[in-house]
Specification:
Blueprint lengths: L6 H19 L19 E6 L8 H17 L4 E3 L15 H13 L2 E10 L2 E9 L5 E6 L18 E3 L4 E4 L8 H9 L4 E5 L6 H10 L2 E5 L4 E2 L17 E6 L3 E4 L4 H10 L4 E7 L4 E6 L6 H7 L5 H18 L4
Helix pairs in contact: 1-2, 1-3, 2-3
Length: 333
């Protein structure tokens, strides 16, 4: 979509770019970017940042604040940073537009992905939209809020849940009031999401933890900045380089497997790869194992395929399909 920027918006964009240049000149991002030594680090690591600076407010001030936060995140080697929904106000703009262009400059500068939520003007309709910008600052996709909250004054998405393939893994985006609708979170799981980013105007709380545990993905919650492990536990060991910014390193290779039909296979895997793979957790009541790599270059998920061990998510989806087929055909299991 070609930008259609008014004179006023163009001035805002130029101001924002000036802020980026000013921050760089002031040395805010002068520190060398830390890089994960992925060839020397076990698993599949990704650094994520939640930036809960709140929804709305004065456009120029909030955009300046967001760009400053992204400079900080970039200087910390973040792979993907997420801002809150409509963080710079509710004046609608096209994609690309002044906000995504300004944020895209910082994304490109620091070689990181950014979730940049805006109010989108799409011809005659408006949406609460989270725009995904890639490491070159270009629009890689967008998610329009499915369950709009009462009084937002925007259209309801007809696109549904989306997933996006990045260079570090598969992600999905859900927004604020979407938290209340289980079908969206299940759809993200069915499409293979490994991280769900959740830009929001409020904290969300326990349902976020529940969704992470049930679906086995990480959640980066940008209401209050809590980053949630795939076990459903809020990650406590987070970095806080400044107020209203939270950074965590996630391992997307960790693997949940069900105990059903896998015991001997897992014993063999662990015995033959001692010092390379370990059982991180035996979830006795749930009937799950959680495995992780302890040696760089060894991926648990690849070994599970080699040893014909289904991941928990795959086991449940296959079982659902086969049991439903038996139900439909009146067969015994």
């Amino acid at each position: 979509m070609s930008p259609n920027i008014s004179h006023e918006c163009a001035l805002c964009w130029l101001l924002a770019l000036a802020v980026v240049a000013s921050n760089a000149a002031a040395g805010e991002a002068a520190a060398p970017r830390p890089q994960l030594q992925r060839d020397k680090t076990p698993g599949r690591q990704v650094r994520v940042a939640a930036i809960p600076i709140g929804m709305g407010g004065d456009y120029d001030k909030k955009l300046k604040l967001a760009l400053s936060h992204l400079e900080t995140a970039g200087s910390q080697g973040v792979d993907i940073a997420c801002l809150p929904e409509e963080f710079a106000g509710t004046k609608a703009e096209q994609i690309p537009g002044p906000t995504t262009n300004a944020v895209g400059e910082v994304a490109k500068k620091h070689n990181m992905w950014v979730v940049c939520p805006i109010r989108e003007q799409a011809e005659k309709e408006q949406y609460n939209t989270a725009v995904l910008l890639d490491r070159q600052g270009k629009v890689a996709g967008y998610y329009r809020k499915v369950f709009v909250f009462w009084g937002e004054g925007v259209n309801v998405s007809r696109d549904g849940v989306k997933v996006f393939d990045t260079d570090f893994g598969r992600i999905s985006i859900l927004t604020c009031f979407d938290l209340n609708y289980a079908e969206l979170w299940l759809d993200a799981e069915k499409q293979g999401a490994e991280i769900v980013l959740w830009p929001s105007a409020y904290g969300g709380g326990a349902p976020l933890n529940g969704n992470a545990m049930i679906h086995g993905y990480y959640i980066v919650a940008v209401g209050w900045g809590n980053i949630i492990d795939a076990t459903g536990e809020t990650i406590k060991d987070v970095e806080k380089p400044r107020e209203q910014q939270f950074i965590a390193t996630l391992d997307l290779d960790r693997a949940f497997v069900h105990k059903d039909f896998t015991g001997e296979k897992i014993k063999k895997l662990l015995a033959e790869h001692k010092g390379e793979v370990e059982m991180e957790k035996d979830c006795g009541m749930e009937g799950w194992y959680l495995l992780r790599s302890t040696k760089a270059g060894v991926l648990v998920r690849d070994l599970c395929k080699q040893y014909e061990i289904e991941l928990l998510r795959d086991y449940r989806h296959r079982s659902r399909e086969q049991i439903n087929a038996a139900r439909k055909n009146g067969k015994k299991i």
